[in-house]
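Sanity check

After download, print the first record. It should look like this:
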Amino acid sequence: MHASVSIAVSACAALLLAGQIPELPPGTLPPVALPGGVALVQKAETTKLKRAGGDAEAGRLRLPATFVPAATVRVCPRVLGQVVEVLVHEGDAVKRGQVLIRLDSAEYKLGVDRARAGVERARAALSQQQMDGKTREQDLKQAQAEADAADAARAYAGKKTERMRDLVKRAAVDVRLLDEAESQLHTNEAEARRLAARYESLRTQADNDRSAVAKAAVAEAQVIVQQAELRLAGADIRAPIDGTVLARHVDVGDEVGPNSAAGRAASLCELADLNQLDAVIEIPENAIERIHTGTKCAVRMDALPERSYEGRVTLISPVFSGQTRTAQARVRIEIPKGTQRLRPGMFGVVEVAAQP
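Expected structure tokens:
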């Protein structure tokens, strides 16, 4: 029986490499095509599990797996520049915020100095406007006092003219004194109008305080400084996470920038947290209904078969492969720090307790 199954499996592999999907013997899962012209044939194993209340038979699948990082971070530049220093190599452990690569920052330092000088100019203009404002305030007070005095003089001249008119009617004074009083009244009225208009003009200028514009200019200059400082900080390429350097794509002298021809920044290096790995497996179509997100798994690697890790299915692809009739799934493995024996690219086996 074993010999016939082996012959059938070999025949299936040959037909798969030829582009045909054969009928499989019972208990054999669909073959998976691997690079280099190799066909991997999976065999589902069924074991008996003893449950509370008696014996029951449950399916348990053993599927080949490849280990990959749960998440890979592409470290990209935020500014243009030439690489002047590379501080990490592949395999180095890094901490979040650690400088990985340095770009030439001379131009960005000059930009910060220029922006700070702009703040000083804006502050000087504000100070001048505030001094002018104090002068305008003093002028306004003086104009108000002069207008009030002219108005009082006009009122006094008006009363004097009325008395003169009364005295002229009674022939108590010469009419020439009335003419002089009326002339003085007209003069005082004109002066009162002039000084009142001057006061209103100064008050309008005070209301339209130019220092508000100067204050806005200072705030704008400070924002420009912050932008310049961000560009300067961008010349130091820092690690966004704790992790391990998986790959480095630049050397000293390379020109890098935030944009590429395809509109996507080129990656300077790639990081990953190797304490979280995913085991990538292929679930056959006849088992897909019995495996769900959250299903517990036992994970072993070929190099250390005696060591087992616990994992859970975190993702099942909604699309099946037309060639292998399998759906790709990911099993998340939490690896305790200091025990990183699993590495991306290694091979292993995932044992899935298929749910009915």
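If your output differs, re-run the checksum step. Summary of this record's structure: The chain is about 40% helix and 30% strand.
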